[in-house]
Automatic annotation (TrEMBL):
Protein's UniProt name: Sarcosine oxidase subunit beta
Organism: Rhodosalinus halophilus
Keyword terms of this UniProt record: Cytoplasm, FAD, Flavoprotein, FMN, Nucleotide-binding, Oxidoreductase
Pfam families: DAO (PF01266)
Protein family according to the UniProt entry: Belongs to the SoxB family.
Lineage of the organism: Bacteria, Pseudomonadati, Pseudomonadota, Alphaproteobacteria, Rhodobacterales
Catalysis performed (reactions): sarcosine + (6S)-5,6,7,8-tetrahydrofolate + O2 = (6R)-5,10-methylene-5,6,7,8-tetrahydrofolate + glycine + H2O2; sarcosine + O2 + H2O = formaldehyde + glycine + H2O2
Cellular component GO terms, alphabetical: cytoplasm
Localisation: Cytoplasm
Length: 417
């Protein structure tokens, strides 16, 4: 089933009776070439690119709940390529290019909106750091413009420039940054993978990983045993638990991250804005809700809901930056479980068990990574070679200490990233 303007018109005129389900609901087969554990953004994108780029279609995605019910449908939807360090810079640059072709590639409207991202700075030192980051972005082939205070005021006149605790010195503007509709990204990849023959199996929790003589042979699930030549673990906040089924101890802690949305308002915030003196970032959804978030809750947890101290911090930061939002009513808040690595950068690598592959450690930034991660992980699974933009995401960097990518410079402590 292809989407087009003509199709929408025809269905509208004929009672919308021609639409079909976006994917099948198959029974699991007894064996597959590749089993992907986790039907979030990364798992579904991996399945799609395995089929599309490598012709590997005897693949199952096993999801314990429903497709897109994890973090991929819980995030604040920010998409950007403004990373600084070699290793991250080329990966996110590649990922953003895939975003830019995604809707055509998937024939699906994911509402990708490149409305521009502005990171504010509030001191001379921060300006220097952002100028350096901007230069790294430009060197990578991405876009970055350093704005002074008046430049920011022109784009974001609603910020508090006069009476604020942390005066705004300027901002790093990334025009190609923006947002997308998060669950549509999962649905688009699911639809594309299913159309190429991948089995998407929901309500199927993996409860064990079978290993014989150092090689993975399949998985145990709540819907029976499934044999597989290769098994890929892509379960975000549950990475440590699922990897433990194969006897692995990952350098990952799980932490809750919260987000918030207000009632629908008329258009007011037409960029993505992040505050430089506290953890606060905000955009406005197409429905009009102000979508915003802050930092982790600062203790390890598997609870998908957060606590009041962080709610207070986020609201305070928002009020400091743009007091006008005090008039908006918050409708909902929720949490997601983040897979935090010691250096804040992800892992895309083979596990020390033959045939087992790991994709995890996306921390709070894995939504923008969905296409790049799926592409690179599919490449690794299909060829057993690292895809160059993701070649530094090795698991062994945490054992050797070489090649760490500490983007924030906060050191090797999970809850500071
Ligand atoms: C509040 C919040 C805000 C965020 N904001 C941003 C943002 O603005 N920009 C950005 O880039 N990133 C953001 N992120 C991070 C981003 O959402 C995640 O890094 C990313 O979605 C994780 O990858 P995923 O989509 O594959 O995870 P998920 O969608 O969580 O997928 C993992 C799947 O694995 C399944 N699973 C787990 N265990 C098993 C099992 N045993 N068997 C079968 N299936 C299993 C889960 O049910 C889940 O569906 C945010 C996250 C949160 C929570």
């Amino acid at each position: 089933m292809r989407f087009s303007g003509f199709r929408v018109l025809r269905e509208g005129l004929t009672g919308n009776r021609g639409w079909a389900p976006h994917w099948r609901d198959p029974e699991p087969k007894s064996d597959y070439d590749v089993v992907i554990v986790g039907g979030g953004g990364h798992g579904l994108a991996t399945a799609f690119y395995l089929a599309k780029e490598h012709g590997i279609t005897n693949v199952a995605v096993l999801e314990k709940g429903y497709l897109g019910g994890g973090n991929v449908g819980r995030n604040t939807t920010i998409v950007r390529a403004n990373y600084f360090l070699p290793g991250n810079s080329e990966f996110y640059s590649h990922s953003l290019k895939l975003w830019e072709g995604m809707e055509e590639e998937l024939n699906f409207n994911v509402m990708h909106s490149q409305r521009g991202l502005i990171n504010l700075f509030h001191s001379d030192g921060q300006r220097d750091a952002f100028a350096r980051r901007g230069n790294a972005m430009v060197n990578q082939g991405d876009d970055a413009i350093l704005l002074d205070r008046e430049g920011v005021r022109k784009l974001l006149p609603y910020l508090d420039f006069e009476n604020t605790r942390f005066p705004i010195y300027g901002g790093l503007y990334h025009p190609r940054g923006g947002t997308a509709r998060h669950d549509a990204v999962a649905w688009g990849y699911a639809r594309g993978a299913d159309a190429r023959g991948v089995d998407l199996i929901q309500n199927c929790e993996v409860t064990g990983i079978d290993v014989e003589q150092g090689r993975v042979t399949g998985v145990q699930t709540t819907r029976g045993a499934i044999r597989a030549k290769k098994v890929a673990i892509v379960v975000a906040g549950r990475s440590s638990q699922v990897a433990a089924m194969a006897g692995l101890r990952l350098p990952i802690e799980s932490h809750v991250l919260q987000a918030f949305v207000t009632e629908g308002l008329k258009p007011v915030i037409d960029h993505v804005v992040s505050f430089g003196m506290g953890h606060f970032y905000i955009s406005q959804s197409d429905k009009g809700g102000l979508v915003f978030g802050g930092d982790l809750d600062f203790y390890a947890s598997y609870a998908a809901r957060g606590n009041l101290p962080m709610v207070e911090h986020v609201m305070e930061a928002g009020m400091t930056l743009m007091p006008m939002i005090g008039k908006a009513k918050v409708l909902r808040s929720w949490g997601g479980i983040m897979d935090m690595t010691p250096d804040g950068s992800p892992i895309i690598d083979r596990a020390p068990v033959a045939g087992l592959y790991l994709n995890c450690g996306w921390c709070y930034g894995g939504f923008k990574a969905v296409p790049g991660s799926g592409f690179s992980f599919a490449h690794l699974i299909a060829t057993d070679r690292h895809h160059p933009p993701a070649a530094r995401y090795r698991l062994d960097r945490f054992a050797t200490g070489r090649g760490l990518m500490d983007e924030e410079g906060t050191g090797a402590q999970h809850n500071l990233h």
